[in-house]
Every structure is written in structure tokens, then in C-alpha cells.
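hey so u asked for the seq, here:
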Amino acid sequence: MSATGEVTGGKQGRGRRVILWRHGQTAWNVERRFQGTTDVPLTETGVAQARRAARLLVGLRPDAIVASDLQRAANTAAELAELTGLDVTLDEGLRETYAGAWQGLTHEEIIAGYGEQYAAWKRGEPVRRGGGELETEVADRAAPVVLRHAEKLPEDGTLVVVSHGGTIRTTIGRLLGLDPHNWESLGGLSNCCWSVLGEGARGWRLLEHNAGTLPEPVLGDDD
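ran it, C-alpha cells below
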């Protein structure tokens, strides 16, 4: 497994691949505000990140692109679509975790106002952060979207899924068959980095995680 580094080259080996690509930077990422389903746009840096990553991902010759309909993900996906000529299918099932009262709050404000709830979540307990969704409910809506589009791929096809840090982590956990208590062990994704799942004889395998750049701080909803 490659923790970092750039992916280049065409299709290799057998089986389908799914690239789960996190959106570019937003102002709320920088401010460490929990975005959730709030529709926050990319910053200029975020757009540049998406363009750079798209130039790398095009080398994988994707067959299809599906994205969250929130603009930070949809606009990230558009950069790859421009290079590949593929259409982007938008699906609200790939949105970030809805976190109710946490949305718009900084990390420090969440700790100050919801310290016990935050601590329980970090321990791996099922928590409706801010009165919102459970992580398992996010996986319930997002993982089927990924599987539905992956099933349409040719035998060695590649699907790019553009989504959000928390949603990607829960989806990977579900597709790998991990216990939800252990999903935290996957770690977060930096802006515009991606993870790669490959189809193996016994199901999906994690081939790469947080790939695409040198290590960077993870600024997002899953911290």
C-alpha cells in the first residue's frame, strides 16, 4: 500500500478499480469549520489542487466519474471531466455527513460546546454528531452508489468517485468489511488526495490511501 505518491500510468492488472477522490480546499477547511452538507465553494487554491490532481488521474484512463452534488466535489470532478471528455454523474448520496448543530462550527467550538459527544465519537461509539447522521448511515447511502456505478464498469474498468473525507472513509470501511468501530484507523484524506480500491478474488482491497501529494495536514470534517 502506498501512503503517498503520485499515480501514473494506464490500466494494469485485472479487475475493476475505484478511485475515491476528496474535493479541493475550501475556506472552511482552512478555518477548520465542520462543513457537513453546507455547500461551501472551492478556494482558488482548491481549484488549483483539483487541476493538478486531474492531470495525474487522467493517466489512469477512467471510464466513469460520479460525484457528490455539493459544489466543492462537483467542481473538483469537473476538472477531470474536462480532460477525459466524460460526463459527471452527480449523486446526493455521496454528500458529506450531515452533522446538524456542528455544521459551521470550528474544531475548538465543537470541543467547547460538545466535548462529551466529540470524545464519544473519537472512541468509536455511534454518535449523531450535532444531532445528525451516524457514520453507518452515511455508509448506508454512499457505498451502494459506488457499487452501483462500479458494476457498470468493464472488466478492467476504473471509476472515479469525487466525494468528502468523512464519506470516503466510511465508504471504504464498508466496502472492506471493517467493523465500524475500526473505521477511524483508516485516517483522513488531505484535500484533493485519493484512495484506490481494487477488485480482488475475495472482494475489494485497499491499494492506496491518501495518495497524490507529499504528506499534508488533514483539514476536514473527519478530524
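The radius of gyration is 16 Å. Residues 175 and 204 are 6 Å apart (CA to CA).
lmk if thats what u needed
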